[in-house]
UniProtKB/TrEMBL annotation:
Family per record: Belongs to the peptidase M1 family.
Superkingdom: Bacteria
Protein name: Aminopeptidase N
One Pfam family of this chain: Peptidase_M1
Domain (Aminopeptidase N-like N-terminal): residue spans on this chain: 52-223
Signal peptide segment: 1-27
EC assignment: 3.4.11.2
Gene Ontology MF annotations: aminopeptidase activity
UniProt source species: Amycolatopsis pigmentata
Catalytic activity: Release of an N-terminal amino acid, Xaa-|-Yaa- from a peptide, amide or arylamide. Xaa is preferably Ala, but may be most amino acids including Pro (slow action). When a terminal hydrophobic residue is followed by a prolyl residue, the two may be released as an intact Xaa-Pro dipeptide
Domain Peptidase M1 membrane alanine aminopeptidase: 314-459
Classification via CDD domains: M1_APN_like
Keywords tagged on the record: Aminopeptidase, Hydrolase, Metal-binding, Metalloprotease, Protease, Signal, Zinc
SUPFAM superfamilies assigned to the protein according to its UniProt record, in alphabetical order: Leukotriene A4 hydrolase N-terminal domain, Metalloproteases ('zincins'), catalytic domain
Length: 476
């Protein structure tokens, strides 16, 4: 299902390279590139500018799935621009650039690109304010064969990875361009509208409707922003260290409701444990949303979203540890390219082992060893490369499980002190930004003083079951 965004053709790469060559040249201002050059998703993000803040202000009616409003983007150009792209799939009514109407055109069904042509070319290094007004029914919008917006019986979910923002706000949609967000959504009184960060209060401007206002002050990736509308039961509390802790439960969880609550309400305890492993929790709030409207979980910054299915058989704190570990690995330190997905999923999966060990449910070494031993050499786990799985296998078990076992192998090679120092230094050096697998390998070698290329090549970039297990030959 992830094949919806075409993997790069030679032509696209040439187009990006040409755009880069002309940038800064004294010739006529160039069009901003239609992507940042991501090998898996050539149209993800855009060239020629960086966004610093989004103000997303919407009205949503669950009865009709009509979503309308404006998004105001604060950005700065990085080159002279005759035009630039936004990643967006909804019907756009008007665009202003620095308060002047701009022309725009798009073929959203093709690739989600909205091309904006300002009345006059933009200078390099110029601050710009872009106001996009739009209205559409997102559940009917198909981009490259896929619809990420999830209509539910009483609302909708704007939750997905690697793309979800195109169905509810225009953006520079790539993890390398993080920004702060104010998200405010007006919905009928019988439902709530949840998003990331801190709750800024409700506002009422007309009978029957209520605004819900949310703010994220720590830079956030676009895929990690979420919108959940529905008749959720909302709980507001405070973490032991004084942060807002907001959780929300789908009223249709039925028999799973108690198990979901018994898991998600432990989030501050779990984040407290993860902080002892990775360094301080990075954000201004904690929480969680449980919904039957999706069948996966996602590490929405400050407020992960969980499918109700994770709690169908009882409590499940593994998934809470996983999604909250992503607050460090994925949300605070984000992917340089989508091909680096191991930095998210391998690390969050390893955090599940650490949490299990803390709970007395086996050591990380034992859990990694079990994955290694229980998958014979011909198992498909060993056929996908965690370090470069391909766009259609981005969320393959190999990225998660082989990826986590790889971290145990690193731990065995460098020792506990160096291993945890590597993890913590990684967060300190890249917080608020994005980084790549090569950066992690270089850091591991720097901190441990060991040559580790062979280990990473074996565990991340070689097809086949590694001959030596994650705890060395002693345990195999
Ligand atoms: N990052 C999510 C996780 O923590 C996976 C999201 C998978 N995406 C999807 N559309 N199924 O596991
Ligand atoms: Zn994950």
């Amino acid at each position: 299902m992830l094949s919806r965004i075409r993997v790069g053709s030679g032509l696209t790469v040439v187009a990006v390279a040409l755009a880069m060559c002309t940038a800064g040249a004294s010739a006529a201002p160039a069009a901003g590139a239609s992507g940042v050059g991501d090998p898996y998703y050539p149209y993800a993000g855009n060239g020629g500018y960086h966004a610093s803040h989004y103000d997303v202000r919407l009205t949503y009616d669950p009865a009709t799935d009509l979503l309308k409003g404006t998004t105001t983007i604060l950005a700065r150009t990085t080159q002279e621009l005759s035009s630039f792209d936004l990643d967006f799939g909804l019907h756009t009514n008007s665009i202003l650039v620095n308060n002047v109407p701009a022309k725009f055109h798009s073929d959203p069904k093709e690739n989600g690109e909205l091309v904006v042509v300002p009345a006059a070319p933009l200078k390099a290094g110029q601050d710009i304010t872009v106001v996009v007004a739009y209205a559409d029914t997102p559940s009917k919008v198909v981009i490259d064969g896929y619809t990420a917006w999830k209509k539910t019986p009483d609302g909708a979910l704007g939750v997905d990875e690697p793309q979800n923002s195109q169905w509810w706000y225009p953006a520079n949609d790539h993890p390398t361009d993080k920004a702060t967000f104010d998200i405010s959504v007006e919905v009928p009184d019988n439902v709530v509208a949840l998003s990331n960060g801190t709750f800024q209060g409700n506002a009422k401007l007309r009978t029957g409707w209520t605004w819900w206002r949310w703010r994220s002050r720590v830079p956030e990736t676009t895929y990690s922003t979420t919108l959940e509308v529905g008749a959720f039961q909302v709980k507001q509390a405070t973490t032991p260290d004084g942060k807002p802790f907001i959780t929300a439960y789908d009223p249709t969880l039925g028999e799973s409701a108690d198990a979901a609550t018994a898991s998600v309400e432990r989030t501050p305890e779990i984040d407290g444990f993860l902080a002892t492993q990775f360094g301080p929790y990075p954000f201004e709030a904690e929480g969680g949303v449980v919904s039957n409207g999706l069948n996966f979980a996602l590490e929405a910054q400050t407020r992960p979203v969980y499918s109700g299915k994770f709690f169908a058989k009882g409590s499940n704190t593994s998934v809470i540890a996983h999604e909250n570990a992503h607050q460090w690995f994925g949300d605070d330190v984000s992917l340089g390219r989508w091909s680096d997905i191991w930095l998210n999923e391998g690390f969050a999966s390893y955090a599940e082992y650490l949490w299990a060990e803390h709970e007395g449910e086996g050591t990380a070494a034992e859990l990694a060893q079990y994955v290694y031993d229980s998958h014979p050499a011909d198992d498909k786990l060993w056929k996908v490369l965690p370090g470069d799985p391909g766009a259609d296998k981005q969320f393959d078990d190999a990225v998660y499980d082989r990826g986590a076992v790889a971290l145990q192998a690193l731990r065995t090679r460098v020792g506990d002190d160096a291993f945890f120092k590597i993890l913590r230094t990684w967060v300190v050096e890249h917080r608020g930004g994005a980084a790549r697998i090569d950066d992690f390998i270089a850091l591991s070698e720097r901190v441990s003083g060991k040559s580790l290329r062979d280990l990473f090549t074996t565990w991340l970039f070689t097809v086949g079951k590694p001959a030596v297990g994650p705890n060395g030959s002693a345990m195999t």
